[in-house]
Amino acid sequence: DAKTTQPTSMDCAEGRAANLPCNHSTISGNEYVYWYRQIHSQGPQYIIHGLKNNETNEMASLIITEDRKSSTLILPHATLRDTAVYYCIVRVVSQFYFGTGTSLTVIP
Amino acid sequence: DAGVIQSPRHEVTEMGQEVTLRCKPISGHNSLFWYRQTMMRGLELLIYFNNNVPIDDSGMPEDRFSAKMPNASFSTLKIQPSEPRDSAVYFCASSFLSGSQETQYFGPGTRLLVL
What we know:
By secondary structure, chain A is mostly beta strands. Chain A has strands spanning 9-13, 18-23, 33-38, 45-50, 55-56, 61-64, 70-75, 84-92, 95-96, 102-107. Chain B is mainly β. Helices cover 0% and strands 54% of the residues of chain B. Chain B has strands at 5-7, 10-13, 19-24, 31-38, 42-50, 53-56, 65-71, 74-79, 88-95, 105-106, 110-114.
């Protein structure tokens, strides 16, 4: 069963904010939302995670809706190096279900 | 911090041969994970260890696959005998489980081609 739903692909202009949505309508109360990205088949790279509150770090911001059924990852100023597949993951115990992710292409 | 270290980075072998993939987790981490990634199936969890003990191996495809973690700083994933359908990128990840939060850090992967 898919725990998260993401658009297959998105484009973003360089320098603009990239907003990547994720639907996780079956999330349980104690399950965290994690975001990872994978560049050119390198190992997945951790970006950010959250439970209920919005989170921000040096890479991105994570906005989680009040009902926790969806979230948005925001890359505030996308660069060409942000072109990657972005995975939204709901963590269940120690199991990360990666799904198919969103392929983000940053356009010059 | 060296991060998760995997070896070899690339492996080409012939069908029927034994393949051993190696992983050194981040020092201090208490959980280790083996994943496989293919175009068809995406990223799949094969097995994970906590404190060197296998917790869930339900993702291991069949008896040809085995994994060990003899100590906190080393793990192996072995395929014997290997088959062409085992061709994939194999990732190792490690984490420190603290309460309900856990961030997994991935290695660079081993690209396996079985001819």
